[in-house]
Design brief:
By secondary structure, this protein is mostly helical. Helices cover 70% and strands 0% of the residues. It is globular and about 55 Å long. The two termini are 31 Å apart.
Length: 176
């Protein structure tokens, strides 16, 4: 995942564009194969925020321990539900008014927002070398959601951190 973050911005742009094209264009006449191709495109597009959230935590100061468990669970739920919907319903509209559908939809909305806000909160924490609230990183979170524009602002900062800083685990422990 770190290799993905060390790539130049234009390469990430091409990677995300290709993954979104796989997700949005029908490349097969067979519905199941088309759904699988879309699922692969969706997984590939979700790997960038996942790698941001996991790799950047390695650059946080030791005084700021943060858990990525909820982030990874939300990423898995978001990707798993989207892949399930793509394969089972083949892109058809899914409508329902039951209470369970509403609860699942609300949690999916939370998961999507969390998956896009968490990595940029970590990015701000690494840059500031201190704690940051989600409110301070919400603007950058929308940059990640609207990736064609936001990528050109976010990825150079990420690349600079990954290229120039040493992960916290590689630093000598000063408490010994």
């Amino acid at each position: 995942m770190e290799k993905l973050l060390k790539a130049p911005t234009w390469a990430i742009f091409i990677y995300l564009t290709a993954s979104y094209l796989l997700f949005s264009i029908d490349l097969s006449t067979d519905p199941f194969t088309g759904s699988l191709i879309k699922a692969v495109g969706f997984i590939l597009s979700g790997i960038y925020p996942l790698s941001l959230g996991i790799v950047l935590t390695e650059y946080l100061p030791r005084k700021l321990p943060i858990s990525t468990t909820l982030f990874v669970i939300n990423w898995l739920i978001w990707d798993g539900c989207m892949i399930l919907f793509l394969i089972l319903f083949d892109g058809q509209d899914i409508s329902g008014t039951g209470g369970w559908i509403m609860l699942i939809s609300l949690y999916l909305m939370f998961a999507i927002i969390h998956v896009h806000l968490f990595p940029l909160r970590i990015l701000k924490m690494v840059k500031k070398r201190g704690d940051v609230s989600y409110g301070e990183s919400i603007g950058m979170g929308f940059l990640l959601i609207f990736w064609p524009i936001g990528l050109w602002m976010i990825h150079p900062e990420v690349k600079m951190i990954v290229d120039t800083q040493v992960p916290t685990a590689d630093l000598p422990d000063s408490s010994k």
